[in-house]
Amino acid sequence: MFCLFRILSSIWISCVFVSIFPVFGEGLQNLPSVRIPLDDGKRLDPGELSEKKEGWYTTVVPLLSSDPVRGQGGGIRASLFFNGTKKDPYYEYEAYRSKLTLQVFQTNQGVRNHFIQFDSPYIFNTAFRWKSSLGLDYNPNSQYFGIGESSLHSLSYPLRNQPGASPIHNANFDEYESSQSYIRPSRGGSEITPTVSDQGYNQYLFNSTTLFNSIDYTFWKAWKWVFANEISKNIIKHTDGTWNPSRDPTFAGNLWETSVPNGESKLTQDYNAGKIIGYNGGEIVYLRAGIAYDTRDFEPDPDRGILVELNVSNVSKRTGSDFNYNKLFFQTKYFYKLFPSVFEELVFATRGALGYTSSGAPFSEVRYMWSLDGPITGIGGLQTMRGFRQDRFVAPMVGFGSVELRWRFATFKLGDELFTLSLVPFYDYGRVWNSEKSLNLQGYKHSWGGGLRIIWNQATVILIDFAKSREDTQMFVDFSHAF
């Protein structure tokens, strides 16, 4: 199977570079100049259209990222844009004609996220859009808190991690992690040393290499059919037995002893109890199909419009996967300018989503959702519920949403480069269920915060967010809006 992956990867790279030259080159002059009818709401705002660059341009951004799970990181993201000319049939409707992006990124926690992506809306002046990517995601600090409604339970821990101690409930994350660093007696079984700690209790290593391709087709002005394929090889390793400096509970944690190994992790406990599959990873082949209604005027930073999408995914051993299961994902996003006569650049943005995963999925894929705008991982973290740890809540049925106010309060130029600054207060909510039969409107988790967006040449959005929940306070530095 992985030989097939390497072959497909080579074909993909060749196709991308073969395709780039006709898309970007002089051949564009000979392409059809009649566009399909599009919804007028997708037309760029006159002010934004006047600032849109023609032809080629690049953005090269040093990556200085901060994330509670991934740690502090650095790298570089370089994007090559081609906007075409004002005479092109889709110039007033597309954020760019084509975009090629390369990223190299690593953090002090050992996370590596490298990829190359290609995106071309209305490719060759047709109703088709092609997206493609090849990437490596290596995270030794992936989070696991269980599968199902049990993950909704508040954080709790025994004082100084000692068996029999009175539990502390409704804890914040710093207190919870601090307790896990204390030495405790081994429980036997796989914990083969007399003393262990639990610093890796909610962690595992996730190493994934992924090849992705999608084609969507626009019809009836704003409707889209979407077809996508994703092939990934996932390798999972566990924290059980990993040695770490740990604290002695006898001295109230003021002394650090010689390193002791991690005890049995939550992931191992659930695997031994028969609650999960995919303990060591596996190979996954997704086949996806969906339909969407999209009237957003400018995808990277919309002023107005709506996206409603529904997609289904199938993973089958018949197509080379190690598992059999299905996924269903529904999402809506809405953008609207508030009080345009008073605040010219104040946008109300909201979204809501539901996701379902059938039985048979490995635990690492239950958390995974796919949208027309890209992948979404878990409930918690930057993409869903800022203020909770990444993948804090995971179950076969998930629901989440967000509300933001985006106020672009300043626009200026540095040379030929256009920058816009935007303040963004936000509110996130979500929860999970064991099945669709358990759906209800109670028990939702909530988080809130605010941030700054630095929008570079309209299509590159730099995000800085501060978020808070009952469990944690977090800071994020990343790219693109949360939704």
Give a description of the structure.
The protein is globular and about 75 Å long. The strands form 5 sheets. A 16-stranded antiparallel beta sheet has the order 1-2-3-4-5-10-11-14-15-16-17-20-21-22-23-24. A two-stranded antiparallel ribbon has the order 6-7. The protein is 10% helix and 48% strand. It has helices spanning 2-24, 46-51, 173-180, 266-272, 363-366, and strands spanning 56-67, 71-82, 98-107, 112-120, 128-143, 157-158, 167-168, 184-185, 195-196, 203-219, 223-238, 243-247, 256-261, 281-294, 305-315, 325-337, 346-357, 368-371, 374-377, 397-414, 417-433, 445-456, 460-468, 473-479. The protein has 5 helices and 24 strands. Strand 1 and strand 2 form a beta hairpin. By secondary structure, the chain is mostly beta strands. The protein has one domain (2-149, 202-479): Porin (Beta Barrel), CATH 2.40.160. Residues 2-30 have low confidence and may be disordered.
